[in-house]
């Protein structure tokens, strides 16, 4: 029993290290090839085209970013290669390397996302503030608990509690990976782009365009994005050690951090995806609209659900009822995991597309537009509005789904029907995500309405392909079944002929 549990623990640790290493390697590789501050576009003043601008304007800051990012990238690759070595996993060597990896990400983000020392210090202090809050929250939570009652409770339901904790841990880890991935890239390459050369107003190359044109909006984006990033890194650090994440999850400290991270992610999107205050308000209104639609769907499903005969279930044996409950619980968990993964996918791509819209941004002001404004908003306004609002609906709907799934709020004992129909509502919400994401892609990936219509028609082509494949598969199965039936029917005839001879 002990050996089996040890193998399971090693396998979980190995999968965790591999997941974190893959995350870090992905974002650090991209950041290393596309460094913050952009690249020079010409060969003047002692620099060459293609060289990092930040290396010329602020060499110390660039080197701090470069080496922190490189350490995280190299450590991730080494961990991926050595993750199969059982002795390293058993002694938590690779997990310690991943902690160092995460601190490298913090240093690289603090150095590359801003241009002054004070802001870098504030960004790094956010991670410490999150850890301090979690410790204080856990301490106050454990003050009201009786250790004797806790031991008795753990003796009775230890396995069940740990199973539920592991499920919540996986969901929190998925959110942390989502937030860390998209906020790290968004912080290093802010919306609106960066100045590619000095101008006559005293603005320096490599600085964010949004910082000069809309300083308040940029600060809202920067701090919301930074809080979400540091929260995600702190969550990952806490979720590595069972002695840390178990009391933190039980006290709902990590759920509070997750809710704050999602809210900050929404605030960063609202501030960075548009330069108009009214449009930012509309984005928050979309959250209420999605919640209203979800509540309406849930009400419709609950009112139209079929009535089941409770007496028939009461007559069944208790063992079969327990088996059915176990199967239903597994299906519900699988559905929740499926919805969570889709929500993370949609939120990731929609967040990045909203901050870096198709068509790019203007590099200078003039003719009714400001530097940093989306080019498509000026040249093709109707198409841009279709893209922007479709993308925003997709992002906000996915955030709502993630927020509903993360705290494990669906009731398990007295609300099975509620949980069932709630998951169905979230399934429809994810479908809305994917449809609006398709509309945003059709509007943003082309510049002609005819081409956008062709993109939509591709759905019919793909569905037609599925229908043809399904038809051929069913026809093949029926033909195979008919052939087997013919062979079975011919066996008695053959045996009769043999006996007669």
UniProtKB/TrEMBL annotation:
Q: What is this protein called?
A: PGG domain-containing protein
Domain of life, per UniProt, equals Eukaryota
Sorted alphabetically, which InterPro entries does this protein's record hold? PGG_dom
Q: Which is one Gene Ontology cellular component term of this protein?
A: membrane
Alphabetically list the UniProt keywords.
Membrane, Transmembrane, Transmembrane helix
Origin organism is Triticum turgidum subsp. durum (Durum wheat)
Entry-linked Pfam families: PGG (PF13962)
Q: Which residues form the PGG domain?
A: 8-115, 165-274, 330-447
Q: Which residues cross the membrane?
A: 64-83, 92-110, 122-143, 172-188, 220-240, 252-269, 281-303, 338-355, 384-405, 425-443, 455-475
Endpoints of the signal sequence:
none
């Amino acid at each position: 029993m002990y050996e089996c549990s040890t193998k399971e623990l090693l396998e979980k640790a190995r999968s965790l290290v591999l997941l974190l290493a893959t995350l870090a390697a992905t974002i650090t590789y991209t950041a290393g090839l596309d460094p913050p501050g952009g690249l020079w576009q010409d060969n003047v003043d002692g620099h060459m085209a293609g060289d990092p601008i930040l290396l010329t304007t602020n060499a110390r800051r660039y080197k701090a970013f470069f080496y922190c990012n490189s350490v995280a990238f190299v450590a991730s690759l080494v961990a991926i290669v050595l993750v199969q070595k059982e002795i390293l996993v058993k002694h938590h060597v690779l997990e310690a390397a991943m902690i160092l990896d995460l601190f490298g990400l913090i240093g690289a983000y603090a150095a590359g996302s801003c241009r002054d020392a004070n802001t870098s210090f504030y960004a790094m202090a956010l991670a410490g503030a999150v850890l301090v809050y979690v410790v204080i929250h856990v301490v106050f939570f454990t003050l009201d608990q009786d250790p004797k009652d806790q031991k008795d409770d753990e003796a009775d339901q230890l396995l069940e509690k740990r199973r539920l904790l592991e499920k919540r841990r996986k969901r929190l880890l998925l959110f942390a990976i989502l937030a860390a991935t998209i906020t790290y890239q968004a912080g290093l390459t802010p919306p609106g782009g960066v100045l590619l050369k000095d101008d006559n107003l005293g603005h320096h190359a490599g600085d964010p365009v949004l910082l000069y044109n809309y300083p308040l909006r940029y600060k809202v984006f920067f701090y919301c994005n930074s809080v979400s990033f540091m929260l995600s890194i702190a969550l990952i650090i806490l979720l590595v050690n069972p002695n840390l994440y178990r009391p933190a999850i039980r006290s709902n400290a990590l759920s509070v951090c997750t809710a704050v991270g999602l809210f900050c992610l929404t605030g960063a999107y609202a501030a960075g995806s548009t330069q108009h205050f009214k449009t930012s308000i509309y984005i928050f209104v979309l959250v209420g609209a999605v919640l209203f639609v979800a509540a309406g769907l849930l009400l419709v499903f609950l009112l139209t659900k079929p009535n089941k005969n409770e007496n028939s279930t009461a007559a069944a044996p208790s063992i079969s009822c327990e088996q059915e409950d176990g199967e239903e619980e597994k299906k519900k968990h699988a559905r929740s995991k499926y919805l969570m993964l889709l929500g993370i996918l949609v939120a990731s791509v929609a967040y990045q597309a909203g901050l870096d819209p198709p068509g790019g941004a203007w590099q200078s002001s003039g003719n009714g537009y400001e530097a940093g404004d989306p080019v498509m908003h000026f040249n093709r306004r109707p198409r841009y509005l279709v893209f922007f609002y479709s993308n925003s609906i997709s992002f906000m709907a996915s955030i709502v789904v993630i927020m509903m799934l993360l705290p494990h709020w669906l009731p398990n004992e007295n609300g099975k029907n509620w949980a069932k129909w709630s998951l169905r509502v979230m399934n429809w919400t994810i479908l809305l995500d994917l449809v609006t994401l398709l509309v945003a892609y059709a509007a943003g990936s082309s510049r002609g309405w005819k081409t956008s219509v062709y993109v939509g028609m591709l759905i019919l082509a793909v569905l037609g392909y599925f229908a043809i494949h399904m038809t051929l598969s069913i026809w093949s199965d029926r033909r195979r079944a008919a052939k087997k039936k013919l062979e079975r029917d011919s066996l008695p005839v053959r045996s009769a002929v043999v006996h007669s001879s």
